[in-house]
Amino acid sequence: MPDESNFNTIDTDIPEIKDGEVLVRSVYISVDPYMRGRMSDAKSYAEPYKVGEPIIGGIVGQVMASKNTRFEVNSYVEGRMEWAEYNVSNGSNIRRLKPELAPVSTALHVLGMPGLTAYFGLLHIGQPKEGETVVISGASGAVGTIVGQIAKLKGCRVVGIAGSAEKCEFLTNELGFDAAINYKTTANLFEALKDACPNGVDIYFDNVGGSVTDNVMKLINFQSRIIICGQISQYNLDKPEMGPRVMDKLLKTSSLMKGFIVSDFAEHNKEGLVNLTKWVQEGKITYRENIVEGFENTIDAFLGLFRGENIGKQLVKVADE
Ligand code: NDP
């Protein structure tokens, strides 16, 4: 588990911009579990962060100065930039936002990377059909909340697994999940899942791995789809835990288990964003933001993801819009 001593904050001058560049003032910083993976030099899809260099992550900001004709002063952008109050960009790592369509902060969740992760994982891999049962672990977070709501739109029975009573109430009362299970207090998770899934599990959207997943796997149906999106329960371990071996279960049910990274589907980003925007505008999908104020609280907000402190998307508000 990382702590504050792994990070350092420094003061530098705000850089001058050159031709083709823009100066972006951070408004919302996104903290995301995948960043933990980059704090390790183990081989992965994303390059490790370099010790002593700034953390790079998703940021929504406002253009304060521009020498790039594509970006007007005062407009809003989203992109991968340094955890800093100001960034200079040549335009290649940022996209323009349309505040008239949705609040700009949504570009870091439902209308950004986590929303697309939910969309591609569930629809392209899971291919849900009406009447099927979908179980989601890490259900109350940025990705899980969107997966569940899309699954409801597709006519599925949706069961969420999350780490507090408040989170479970949010899922069933506000997001329309059919059932939610608190994996931290439920005495027998398998029995609770069996009760919540009387027809078994057709799709399992896994954000956490570990023993939660071991229990869901016992309930998978014939030709189920298991989507491996995240394994947050393993991110802070030196060695991953050994769980029950599931190959036999996959074989006997002719099931599909597939890992993916949201960028695998980059060619479909436009389709995903158009549909997610439409659903948000029509009120078919809603979202919650867990906002911490102040740049100096960024690291604590990031660490809070691993303590389960967030309901919905964890953001840090660094400046007023
Ligand atoms: P969340 O908003 O869900 O925040 C993290 C949540 O994980 C916490 O609130 C906590 O909720 C839960 N958690 C933390 N530690 C544990 C643990 N030890 N065991 C079980 N649950 C834990 O994050 P995101 O929605 O942004 O990400 C969800 C998952 O999706 C992550 O695993 C992430 O790495 C993955 N991901 C994958 C992508 C891809 O391209 N494949 C892209 C984006 C995200 P609780 O109280 O319920 O424990």
UniProtKB/TrEMBL annotation:
<dbReference type="InterPro" id="IPR036291">
    <property type="entry name" value="NAD(P)-bd_dom_sf"/>
</dbReference>
<dbReference type="InterPro" id="IPR013149">
    <property type="entry name" value="ADH-like_C"/>
</dbReference>
<dbReference type="Pfam" id="PF00107">
    <property type="entry name" value="ADH_zinc_N"/>
</dbReference>
<dbReference type="Pfam" id="PF16884">
    <property type="entry name" value="ADH_N_2"/>
</dbReference>
<keyword id="KW-0560">Oxidoreductase</keyword>
<protein>
    <recommendedName>
        <fullName>Enoyl reductase (ER) domain-containing protein</fullName>
    </recommendedName>
</protein>
<dbReference type="InterPro" id="IPR020843">
    <property type="entry name" value="ER"/>
</dbReference>
<feature type="domain" description="Enoyl reductase (ER)">
    <location>
        <begin position="5"/>
        <end position="316"/>
    </location>
</feature>
<dbReference type="InterPro" id="IPR045010">
    <property type="entry name" value="MDR_fam"/>
</dbReference>
<dbReference type="GO" id="GO:0016628">
    <property type="term" value="F:oxidoreductase activity, acting on the CH-CH group of donors, NAD or NADP as acceptor"/>
</dbReference>
<dbReference type="InterPro" id="IPR011032">
    <property type="entry name" value="GroES-like_sf"/>
</dbReference>
<dbReference type="InterPro" id="IPR041694">
    <property type="entry name" value="ADH_N_2"/>
</dbReference>
